[in-house]
From TrEMBL:
Gene3D superfamilies referenced in this protein's UniProt entry, alphabetically: P-loop containing nucleotide triphosphate hydrolases (3.40.50.300)
Pfam family membership, one: OLD-like_TOPRIM
Protein name as annotated: Putative ATP-dependent endonuclease of OLD family
GO BP annotation list: double-strand break repair
Amino acid sequence: MFLSNVTIKNFRLFQEFTVRLNTGINVIVGENNSGKTALVDALRYALSVNSGEWTRIQDRDFRKGTNAFSIQLKFEDINTRQAGAFVEHLTHEKNAEGQGRTSVLYLNLLAEQTSTVRGTRQIRTEIRSGANADGPAIEREAREFLASTYLRPLRDAEAELMGGRGSRLAQILESSEQFNEPTITQLLAAIVTANQSIMGNDGVQSAKGRVQAQLRDLDFKSNTLNPLISIMGGTDLAELTGIERRQMFRATLERLQLLIDAQERYQGLGYSNLLFMATELLLLEQEQHDFPLLLIEEPEAHLHPQLQMKFLKALREGFSSRNSSLQSILTTHSPNLASKAPLDNVIIMSGAKAFSLRPSETNLESGNYVFLEKFLDVTKSNLFFAKGVLLVEGDGENILLPSIAQLLDVAFEDYGVSVVNVGSLAFGHFARIFQRRGKDALQAEWLSTRVACVRDLDLRPERAKIAEGNIYGFKKAVPRNQAYWESHYADNPGGRTQWIATRKSSAGQNVRVELSDHWTFEYSLIRAGLSAEVYEALKGDIEGYDALPNNDDELRAIAIFKDIAESSGGKTEVAYKLSALLTNRFGSVVTPSPEGEDEAQAEARRNADAAATLARRDELRSKLPGYIINALEHVTGVALKPPSQEAGPDAAAA
């Protein structure tokens, strides 16, 4: 039995929400306020939790403008024993093949705000079965069968592991198979023996005498009170009934405390949380629930990255292998956990919608899953939490694009954009993560993350070939790379069109492919207008720039790009230097305030600085390749082109 589908209406930020869950582990990722906590709370409200924690529906749980919500849970793969527990609540549906019927269980939590009584709005709730919530009410005993284990975020692990009423440690010990009647009797006998030793201690007896004397001064002389100092009441075991013995056993367990290490009794928050999670998993395993469901919010709380990954591995390979029926739902903000989870078990939350990455719901093919399982590391998995993603193929773009965005006043940090360097051949693998299978015509069901693949055109100009008399040529023409030369398509426009179509094959839905205007990223920067800046970043100064063929943009770009390719640092070092140069040349203008400046003068100075900054920004934008501007506009959602470039002269005039 497992929880297969969750459907929620008008609960908090959910208007119409649905998600299909996996049988084993489900890793829910996404940015803040995407609905992860709301989903977990919806499950807690509908199922309740094993710890006995009391949950209460409040006014804030209703979506704004509504006075009723519903949470429907669907359970599948019900065995005979489980069917017996819910026989009157089962729904018999056609199976996936359309042949025969299968039994499923629907649990519906219905909540409605009713009239106000004494200034407080009353909330009426009911839990019913049936696909349309028209079945009989589900009684508490049946709901306890479905109770989940819940690990809250930022939990007070030390308090949870202390002794006391409702102690989780006491529950673990009490449910252990090792505690049978003989071992319980042995433990209680040890308590009674210890109790007798305490009572016989001279210090205890002296204190008891003083208390008794004080009582006699306060009480009537006809009463003969005889106080007792003991561990568990000091009752002889032979006088206890079976129920009393069990109560004494439980009370003994509740006085025990669990510490993580015998030598270092107190540890930091991280290890305390690790110990607490270990006890919860042990309790879940010992109790052998027919329906073990584990809800964990932010398991990364107080755990450093390596421990986070160790925890997930233990959950996947250790605990789950011993308890194959366990279903777990984890919400996380950690790229470490996201990178180590099986990709088809990841569910992205975005805009109060859920997007599962299982094969039937994405454009990912089997080969994509194999590739991503191997290469989706911690750095790249931050794309699960981004509003916009730039997929780039080299260090140059990875270094320069954030700097360029900052200078154009669309800093990636301000727009939730991540840059992911995927290498030259991996665009399709990563892009398909964000594309929903069979949803090309249904824009409302697209993943809202804006993705731009920034790719090189990789068509080399003819004059870059090594040839007699060509001092700027540096690329050797061999048969196997003939397809990369512009001359190959000179008399074959269809071939060029096919080349571009192949390069853009990853596009679709909210994924765009922006091809370089010429050859490569660096070459396009030179051709577009940054030739002097790239030359200075490469050489350290501008000396010698005027000696280049300045009347021929292509040949000048080839000459500079040749020097980059042949330099010891290569493209990466030039990118770092160019980033610093652009920041210095096109960054914000801030004029120091002169001594004695009044408010009017300060305002005029600030306005002049703002105008100068805007002029610098416009100058940089005019020097950039069009495909870079297009990519930045897509991932940030901000228009960067002047109106004249966006929609022609009429828009500019307007």
